[in-house]
Amino acid sequence: MEMMRSLRHVNIDHLHVGWYQSTYYGSFVSRALLDSQFSYQHAIEESVVLIYDPIKTAQGSLSLKAYRLTPKLMEICKEKDFTPEGLKKASVGFENMFEEVPIVIKNSHLINVLLWELEDKSTVSDKHELLNLSSRSDISS
Question: For residues 13 and 29, what is the distance between their CA atoms, to the nearest angstrom?
Fold first, then answer.
């Protein structure tokens, strides 16, 4: 909060709408996450938490999801009633604790052109040629 006050004081345009957490294989639910997201969502209604999985991303597809706490879970967090009876009374289970917010990632046209040119310049044989030890002139025998 102090950082946002400082940014506002020097007239920097900012829009803080949440935070992020990295995770491995999608296991991200913890009491700390619930408490943090509740604090953010209580202060900024449209707040989200971004969950990033570097292992899944390294396997070839970007693993980035945005979540918000459901209204039912927000009520439980306000009352701090995380007992099994409290969760059962509110009909909250693992499957309805979070609501997923769709993410749309867009590149500028210049980035799209750059990526296209990089892909066009790199051929499969060039990539494998870097691994061929017999073609390396800087390796001495």
Answer: 32
Q: Taking the model in full, what pTM does it have?
A: 0.63
Q: What is the pLDDT of residues 11-33, one digit of tens each?
A: 776 677 888 888 887 788 888 88
Residue showing tokens 């990632």: 105
Q: Which residues lie closer than 8 Å to 130 by C-beta, 6 or more apart?
A: none
Helices (H), 21-82: 31-43, 54-58, 71-79
- Per-residue burial over 15-50, b if 16 or more Cβ lie within 10 Å, else e, is eeebeeeebeeeebeeeebbebbbebbeeeeebbbb
In a domain, 54, yes or no: yes
Query: Does any domain span residue 137?
Result: no
